[in-house]
Amino acid sequence: MANITSMSGFLLIRFSDIRELQILYALLFLVLYLLTLASNLIIIIITTVDQHLQTPMYYFLKHLSLLDLSFISVTVPQSIDNSLKDDGYMSQDQCILQVFIFTSLAWAEMAILTVMSYDRYVAICFPLHYEVIMDPTKCQGAVIAVWLSGSISGILFTAATFSITFCKAKIIHQFFCDVPQLLKLSCSNDYLRVIGVTTFVSAMAFICFISIVFSYTHIFSTVLRMPSDEGRSKAFSTCLPHLFVVSFYISTGMFAFLNPTSDSPMAVDLMISIFYTVIPPTLNPIIYGLRNEAMKEACRKLLLGRQFNKKKSQFYCC
């Protein structure tokens, strides 16, 4: 135990002590990862090359897919590699990098979901002013703000987390470097910096959540007043998938954050982390692809090798 405490890196917990089960879990993770990788890449490609998808909604969706692809790539490949090698060691530099990228992308995903809810709010509640409100410059600015705010969040979390003095056995009861688990390795009050950062980011996330609730309250109020059944159906088919994505991401994230970490490995902790880190990036492209006719048509063109119209509108191909 003394050697574990004094080593420079960290030991990540195994999913199982049985070698065969480790390989099975690695293969399951690999299947999920490849599915997520392929589906998000398809969305990124078709929203870039199909002129019918050069609108703010699909522009934001492309960045959501890019975030999802990056988000799952931070944790899952490393976990697969550790399982296949039967080695959970991660150096401190690797852990620092993983914490920075993970926390950056986690916040950026929350921010892009907020922007997407605002986009749907403007499209449904102010359709005549949509092109003016959601002009290319503002859309680009919103996306830049999403990525920059994510980077700031990552810097704050990383700086605060690794200012801690780790004096306990450096065993992390997760399949990645999780901030709450790292806090349990501290023996002093220097983790209060992380609590401060967490409180600030949580307050900002709450503001985002209120904004999303505000947007959808007005959206559904407007949709229910539509005289056309077809119009209501089209609006709901666009908004309900987004609402499901937002609800699932926020609920699993809150559950993972509020769930107290344990001093001993528990299967429920690993399951919660999987629902938070793996399932949303896997579900997002499936939900949008299966419920959106324009996306399905563009996907058929791509899979059947048909030519896209190369004409681009404004900047949304970028």
UniProtKB/TrEMBL annotation:
GO molecular function, one term: G protein-coupled receptor activity
Record carries keyword Membrane: yes
Domain G-protein coupled receptors family 1 profile stretches: 39-288
Membrane topology: Multi-pass membrane protein
Superkingdom of the organism of origin: Eukaryota
Localization: Cell membrane
One GO cellular component term noted in the UniProt record for this chain: plasma membrane
Chief localization: membrane
Matches recorded under InterPro entries: GPCR_Rhodpsn (IPR000276), GPCR_Rhodpsn_7TM (IPR017452), Olfact_rcpt (IPR000725), Olfactory_GPCR (IPR050516)
Keywords: Cell membrane, G-protein coupled receptor, Membrane, Olfaction, Receptor, Sensory transduction, Transducer, Transmembrane, Transmembrane helix
Pfam families, alphabetized: 7tm_4
Transmembrane annotation, as ranges: 23-46, 58-76, 96-118, 139-166, 191-214, 235-258, 270-290
Family classification: Belongs to the G-protein coupled receptor 1 family.
Known role: Odorant receptor.
Protein name, entry field: Olfactory receptor
Record organism: Chrysochloris asiatica (Cape golden mole)
